[in-house]
Specification:
Length: 186
């Protein structure tokens, strides 16, 4: 079973990325120092890196039931950011989100993540999790609004390459409420 390549929510369109999106992705968020501060992948230094990400996205969609989505505003189709699923196994996936600066504070991340949680559930994902830097309260708020619960504080766990420390840092692991509920029953 494959996930939908196009999802509409109340205000958003989530869709699979294409190679033609490279310039918009790079300019809107992947090359922005402030936007990528707490992201687990290095800020793109060139549009070539964004093109490589888009090729990776296509490969993920070919390999797994779903992959990365771009987030656009309905109506004008303005690119707002990205989200999606990163599968580890057919039943275990990670999720996350990144939004352009002018899209912060409008509830778009919450709306997009809620849609991704539905996709994960419909695809039979039993463990959906997200990693978050402890100094990123806006992201923590989005996760909690979407029913994710803090599972663990992981010391010296994740590389946040855009913080510039060069060290693995503490990370929070959140799991979807569905995953947490399923684990407590076993």
């Amino acid at each position: 079973m494959k996930g939908p390549e196009h999802i509409e929510t109340g205000r958003l369109v989530l869709r699979t990325p294409t190679a033609a999106d490279a310039e918009a992705v790079y300019t809107r968020y992947s090359g922005d120092t402030e936007v990528t501060k707490y992201i687990g992948w290095p800020r793109h230094q060139s549009i070539e890196q964004t093109k490589a990400f888009l090729a990776f996205s296509e490969a993920e969609w070919n390999r797994w039931p779903a992959g990365p989505y771009l987030i656009e505003r309905q109506g004008n189709r303005k690119l707002l950011g990205g989200t999606g699923l990163a599968f580890e196994t057919p039943t275990v996936a990670a999720t996350g989100y990144v939004l352009a600066r002018d899209a912060w504070g409008h509830g778009y991340a919450t709306e997009a993540l809620a849609a991704v949680v539905v996709v994960a559930r419909d695809l039979g994902v039993r463990r959906l999790y997200a990693l978050c830097h402890p100094n990123h309260p806006a992201s923590i708020h989005v996760l909690e609004k979407c029913g994710f619960v803090l599972e663990d504080r992981l010391a010296v766990f994740a590389d946040f390459p855009n913080l510039g420390s060069g060290q693995r840092e503490e990370c929070l692991r959140y799991v979807s409420w569905q995953t947490a509920a399923a684990r407590t029953k076993t």
